[in-house]
Specification:
With about 250 residues, the protein is an all-alpha fold. The chain has 2 domains: about 100 residues, no CATH class; about 100 residues, Tetraspanin (Cd81 Antigen, Extracellular Domain, Chain: A). It is built from 7 helices and no strands. α1 packs antiparallel against α2, α2 runs antiparallel to α3 and α3 packs antiparallel against α7.
């Protein structure tokens, strides 16, 4: 034996296994989200009739699980396998994909600030479109009920918005028992605490969301900054690992 030790560039084990461990969590979370989404679609019969995806007039909350789960699965897989196998292609893909997501988030934030009125109009349209489809999907119904209960609101800008729903509208031709009414989630939980004449929330969800955003602006901003820093940190670590791997290969 010569007794000499290799003093060339080396791959950092700390960075390698940190990226691996962190992305294993994301990978399994992505699988869990995808599983929940597919299970929900199976319960609603969507998987046996794919064309029914377009039948719902409003927003299907299951899409959130599938999209978020899919992104987490792809990122987790690329980061996990890329770090473990020292695969520079997967690590570069991980960095670029994470960078694209960061850029889209930044762009969305700037556009939301610049075009506040347009965003408000789109939110109003989105909520009313889902009010029309309230009874069409149980997941959408639960999401709307949760929103109205949490923000103590009713409709997009008021209870009158529920006239858009065929079960609650006040037209003479409506034979529904819920005619001229609103969902239970619009009802105040304890009318004795407020004016005896007020039994439903009178404020719309759009202004209530704006108020909640203003009251919690520091927390919301902190969360977004934290997510952005994590993304930048992940990109830097992945690029650092790629540089180490390429330096080691170049020294062979």
């Amino acid at each position: 034996m010569s007794g000499k030790h290799y003093k060339g560039p080396e791959v950092s084990c700390c960075i390698k296994y940190f990226i691996f461990g962190f992305n294993v969590i994301f990978w399994f979370l992505g699988i869990a989200f995808l599983g929940i989404g597919l299970w929900a679609w199976n319960e609603k019969g969507v998987l046996s009739n794919i064309s029914s995806i377009t039948d719902l007039g409003g927003f299907d909350p299951v899409w959130l699980f599938l999209v978020v789960g899919g992104v987490m699965f792809i990122l987790g897989f690329a980061g996990c396998i890329g770090a473990l196998r020292e695969n520079t292609f997967l690590l570069k893909f991980f960095s670029v994909f994470l960078g694209i997501i960061f850029f889209l988030e930044l762009t969305a934030g700037v556009l939301a600030f610049v075009f506040k009125d347009w965003i408000k109009d789109q939110l109003y349209f989105f909520i009313n479109n889902n009010i029309r489809a309230y009874r069409d999907d149980i997941d959408l119904q639960n999401l709307i009920d949760f929103t109205q209960e949490y923000w103590q609101c009713c409709g997009a800008f008021g209870a009158d918005d529920w006239n858009l729903n065929i079960y609650f509208n006040c037209t003479d031709s409506n034979a529904s028992r819920e005619r001229c009414g609103v969902p239970f989630s619009c009802c105040t939980k304890d009318p004795a605490e407020v004016d005896q004449q007020i039994v439903i929330y009178t404020k719309g969800c759009v202004p209530q969301f704006e108020k909640w955003l203003q009251d919690n602006l520091t927390i919301v901003a902190g969360i977004f900054i934290g997510i952005a820093l994590l993304q930048i940190f992940g990109i830097c670590l992945a690029q650092n690992l790629v540089s180490d791997i390429e330096a080691v290969r170049a020294s062979w």
